[in-house]
Design a protein that fits this description.
Layout: H1 6-14, H2 30-33, H3 47-60, H4 64-78
Length: 89
């Protein structure tokens, strides 16, 4: 029996195709069911936004991740949602 790669198994599973007996689906592996440590959240802004963030970064002694986390928490407060960002360390 030929062993299928986990990528091909995951693609077949995502496409709704049955997984052959003896192969693991991507969803059954511990890595696939574990909560990710972090995710990328990105957007494109004008260079002016970056300039202002760098100025605030210099004045506050906080890094960009801390500043954006603070801003996201403020936005969550505004909309009555739980604060998602907890500063590490």
């Amino acid at each position: 029996m030929t062993k299928k790669s986990s990528l091909s198994t995951a693609l077949a599973s995502a496409a709704g195709k049955p997984t052959p007996a003896g192969t693991l689906s991507a969803a059954s592996t511990p890595a696939a069911t574990a909560k990710p440590a972090s995710v990328l959240v990105a957007a494109h802004f004008s260079p002016e936004v970056r300039r202002v963030l760098k100025l605030i970064e210099a004045d506050s002694a906080k890094n960009l991740k801390q500043l954006l986390g603070e801003a996201i928490n403020d936005l969550a407060d505004k909309y009555g949602k739980p604060r998602p960002y907890a500063e590490e360390g």
